[in-house]
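Hi, here's the filled form for the chain we discussed.

Project: internal
Contact: R.S.
Residues: 150
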Amino acid sequence: MKHYSTHAIDQLTRHALRDTSGFNWLMNNGYRELLAVFDAVRDDKMAFKFLMENKHFVLAAFVNAIWDDEKAFKFLIDAKAYDWAACANIINGDDKAEEVLNRSGKKHFVLLAHAIQSRIHEDNDKNMSPWGVMKNLLNFKKGMKKDEDS
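And the returned structure, exactly as it came back:
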C-alpha cells in the first residue's frame, strides 16, 4: 500500500474544493491515482478502471466504501488502511471516525472527507434540478439506444 503525505492529501482536498492548484500539484507530482479517486467518487467509470488496472486497490476500495460497500470497507481494514476507512466513514456520517482521526493527528483526512462529502451533496443537488433531471433522462435514453444497437 502506497503512503501519501499530508501535503498530497491536502492537495486532493484542495482539488475537491475546486482549487485548480491542487489539481495541478497532483498532476505535476505524479499523483494521477489521487485525481482518479475523486473522479471515481463522482461516478467516472474510467477513473475507477484506472485505479483497478494500476493496482491502486486501497484507493478503489475507498471509493466503494464511500457508497456503503461493506466488503470494500472490510478490505480497507484488512489492508490496515485505517485512515482511508475512517475517511469513508466520516463521509457516511460517522462522527466517531472523525473524533478518532482528529485525536490521532490526521485532520487532513477529516478535511478530505468533508470536501468530498460537500461535492457529493453538490452533485446530487445538480442532478435534482430540473435541468439535471432532463440531462439524466437524455443520458439514460442514449444508454438504452446503445444497448439496442449492440
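Let me know if anything looks off before we file it.
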